[in-house]
Amino acid sequence: MKKLLPTATAGSLPKPSWLAEPEKLWSPWKMEGEALTEAKQDALRVSLLEQQVAGIDIVSDGEQTRQHFVTTFIEHLAGVDFEKRETVTIRNRYEASVPTVVSAVAREKPVFVEDARFLRQQTKAPIKWALPGPMTMIDTLYDAHYKSREKLAWEFAAILNAEARELEQAGVDIIQFDEPAFNVFFDEVNDWGIATLERAIEGLKCQTAVHICYGYGIKANTDWKKTLGHEWRQYERTFPRLQASSIDLVSLECQNSHVPMELIELLRGKKVMVGAIDVASNRIETPEEVADTLRKALQFVDAENLCPCTNCGMAPLSRSVARGKLKALAGGAEIVRRELTCA
Ligand SMILES: [Zn+2]
């Protein structure tokens, strides 16, 4: 990653309509068995190619093999009963029917390691792999066993660490933990959120990232954002703790958000994946708009630590919109890259 301003996406990209119903979260697969495995791999190849054609430097699987960024990981664990569902309020925001933790949780076999190995075979570019973070996992479940959010988070942290170590072995360059819950439960973040995240990355030699956002562009999230006032200072509570942590990169939402850019200063020294693409709008940014956001961010992050990125995953968008946004991201980064190297 010697290139200045290497571009990346926060995570998911749209799935082809032959694989799953498009523009929908938790969309069911359109096939099963062997055919599904093959289709997921084909979709991963297409997603990778689209990133490369657009000019994205740090590529991912576009989360083509998972239905949802949290649920799919949990589905592979023992101790969680997917038949026994309860309605909970996710991130204090929207109700969802979720599975129940009925006994000790355990990872009996690797979850994404084969998929990561497959992606590694397809490209020599740096690859980033996303996993859910411990706090976001517990917030997407009903716990009838541990009856303690913290206890369950520590269990998940150990499980995530085992998975992450194998992903590293499979050749993943950056392992990212998605922790949108860090933007909601500030006391817990301080009490044990950062600590469990550090447990999840224990012993890793590859780079590690945490993605903290205001969520996908779904209605529950956009409605919530309207209640946050004109200035979003949520990151202010978490960034100082992350700055002091051993996480290498922090991925955050900056495009069209009300996050004051100067909050990035609190992360000084870390690599920052600056969200310069709004995932809650179908309007495709111009490269110049992306460049503008990046220039503003450069006041608070050193150029060698800036990774232009999307605000969040793009799974709910149409493929053509997502494609346009990827291209705008790469184009905007290129504008600023030239300015920096010619200065
Ligand atoms: Zn996100």
Automatic annotation (TrEMBL):
Could you confirm whether the keyword Methyltransferase appears in this record? yes
Question: What does the UniProt keyword field contain?
Answer: Metal-binding, Methyltransferase, Transferase, Zinc
Q: Where is the Cobalamin-independent methionine synthase MetE C-terminal/archaeal domain?
A: 5-329
Look up the EC number in the record and give it.
Answer: 2.1.1.13
Q: List GO BP terms, alphabetically.
A: methylation
Indicate yes or no for the key word Methyltransferase: yes
As cofactor, the record names:
Zn(2+)
Task: Supply the CDD domains for this chain.
Answer: CIMS_C_terminal_like (cd03311)
Query: What are the GO MF terms of this UniProt record?
Result: methionine synthase activity
Entry protein name: Methionine synthase
To which species is this protein native? Asaia lannensis NBRC 102526
